[in-house]
Amino acid sequence: MALSQDTVQALAQRLDDCQQQVRDTTKITDDQPALDWNDAYAIQDALLARKLARGARLVGFKAGLTSRAKMQQMGVEAPVFGFLTDDLALADGGALRHAGLIHPKVEPEIAFVLSRPLRGPGCHVAAVLAATAFVLPGIEVIDSRYRDFKFDLKSVIADNTSAAGFVVGGTPMPVAGLDLVNAGVVLERNGVPVGFGAGAAVLGHPAQAVAELANHLGRHGREIPAGCVVLSGGITEAVSVAAGDSVALSVQGLGRTSLRLI
Ligand code: OOG
Ligand code: MG
C-alpha cells in the first residue's frame, strides 16, 4: 500500500460524495500517481463500508472489462471486480431516474447465481458451472464518477467499477444443456437493436469471469457466497442512455429483461 489509511478514506468519501451529489471528478490517479492495486481495492472496500454503514446490503459482485469490446472502448487491458448493493437492484422492467446519474450507459451481461459458495485460488469454468444454481440475462447501468467517463484501471477499481444499477430477467435457467458460449445477445434501445454479441465475448466463456472473480476474492480471503448475483461483464460496448429511453436485452436461451430511464 502506498497510501495512508486517512487518504484511502478521503478518496472513498470523494467518490461517494460524487455519486450522491451527481457530479463528476478528476481521476484519483491524477492526484495520487503512486496509488497501487491494493490501494485501489482498499478505496473500493472503504466505499462499500460507507454504504453498509448507511444501511445498504451487499447483494452481489461484478466483473468488468471482461470483453475485448469493453477493453477497447475504455482503453484498458484487464478485468476489474466490484460489488453490488441492494440499492442498485431494479425490478425487471423497472425505472431509474436519469437525473440521479451523471452520464449513464447500459451494457448487456449474463448474470450468475450460485447454489454453493466459490473461493479461489484455482477456481475454473467447470467449478463455476458445477456451483451455479441458474443464469439470467442482466442489464448493467454504469455511471463512472470520472469526468467524460475517462479513467485508468486503478481509478475505476476505486470507483467500484462504475456500478450504478442493474436488472436481471425473471426466468432463471440452470446451466446444464445451455450453450453460454454461442448464446446470441441483442441489446435494444427504444426498440432499435444497438448491440449484438455472444457469450464467448466474455473471456471465451462468461463463467470464466466468475472464476476470475472467485480467484480475486480468494486472494483477499473472501468468497462468492451462494445466492448472490454475479454480473460477468459487458458483452458489447456500453451504450449511452437518456431520460425517456427504454432498454431491453434478450439472451438466446435465457429470455429477456428490460429497464427504463425516467
Ligand atoms: C467500467 C466497468 C465495466 C463491464 O461490464 O465491463 C463493466 C466501465 O466501463 O465504466 O461493468
Ligand atoms: Mg458491467
> What's the main sheet like?
7 strands, mixed
Query: Approximately how much beta-strand content do the residues carry?
Result: 25-35%
Q: Structural class of the secondary structure composition?
A: alpha+beta
How many strand units? 12
Q: Please bin the fraction of helical residues.
A: 25-40%
| CATH architecture call | Alpha-Beta Complex
End-to-end separation: 42 Å
Assign the CATH topology: Fumarylacetoacetate hydrolase, domain 2
- CATH H level, superfamily name: Fumarylacetoacetase-like, C-terminal domain
The number of distinct structural domains comes to: 1
Mean pLDDT: 97
Radius of gyration: 17 Å
The residue ranges in which pLDDT falls below 50 over 5 or more consecutive positions are: none
Overall 3D shape: globular
The top level CATH class name: Alpha Beta
Question: Which molecules other than protein and nucleic acid are bound?
Answer: 2-oxoadipic acid, magnesium ion
Count of helical stretches = 7
